[in-house]
């Protein structure tokens, strides 16, 4: 790999939002690594090329490698901060770990294209992996979470998305890769919808219809945005890039929460602030209305890394 040239990132990591998504959670069969290495590289390259072919429908995606599977697939080197999902528990707030070997993330503004590509990807992986779980996400109203609140407003914008989400010179071999955390949250919507709107707004820290941020002095310490809006020792904001989308059916529905970041610690600090709180008894009250069913940690390598390691 040429050190002077930035490796090619997988395009779905920093892509703007879409109307539809498909999430494939896969586990590798035993002892298939030598075949799987070229296969994951081909799948990632295929997704990359389709982003051009289906540019009109804003197709994008990526292939991510599970933290617990990384050393089996790529035993030669490991991203410096890659570790299993930081499972947490406090009182009745739970963030369990549930790891997968591979995660394929596909998004597009046309559902038919997504279905076609998902089928193709599964065929490319045939005999090497088992499809353990699949979810389909959708854009709800004007990019709202199923709680009715606009989600993604304070996400990094423009080229700052790359600064936040992609590894830079700090870990040379893994430049343009990304640490990914995925949690499938199932909402208790009947409980949530019984809350008066003002109470819901106090829990998020923004108004519901107009999506206006509360003034700093009005934000409850237990509000979601108070708990996740954190600063480092220098007073700079700790950031992640969220790629979450609502998912589900009448049986189970919620948010497929997805965080991409150039390090793994920003997500962990935010999650800890939500679950454990600020040390003075203030945890995130949004957690009373939703339950994390899964929690998985992955790394999304650059296309060049995958290609280089393929044989
Ligand atoms: C902001 C919803 C989980 C991190 C927000 C906002 C909403 C929201 C409505 C305000 C609008 C915006 O800026 O996007 C949810 C729901 C969740 C969830 C429904 C799960 C059920 C998480 C988790 C994390 C997180 C697990 C990180 C560990 C953030 C961050 C912001 C945010 C960093 C921006 C805060 C700011 O700077 O104002 N979320 N969120 N969220 N959320 Fe979440």
Considering the chains and any ligands shown, give keywords for the structure:
311 residues, alpha+beta, 10-stranded antiparallel sheet, two-stranded antiparallel sheet, 12 strands, 26% helix, 23% strand, binds protoporphyrin IX containing FE
What is this structure's SSE topology?
Layout: E1 20-28, H1 33-53, E2 60-66, H2 70-73, E3 88-90, E4 93-95, E5 102-108, H3 111-125, E6 129-138, H4 160-165, E7 178-187, H5 189-193, H6 197-204, H7 224-228, E8 241-242, E9 245-248, E10 253-261, H8 265-275, E11 290-292, E12 296-300, H9 303-308
Antiparallel strand pairs: 1-5, 1-6, 2-5, 2-12, 3-4, 7-10, 7-11, 7-12, 8-10, 9-10
Quick overview of this protein structure:
With 311 residues, the chain is α+β, with helices and mostly antiparallel strands.
The stretches of 5 or more residues where confidence is low (pLDDT under 50) are none
Specify the number of helices: 9
Shape: globular
What does the average pLDDT come to? Answer: 97
Q: What value does the Rg take, in angstroms?
A: 19 Å
Could you state the oligomeric state of the chains shown? single chain
Helix content: 25-40%
Strand content is 15-25%
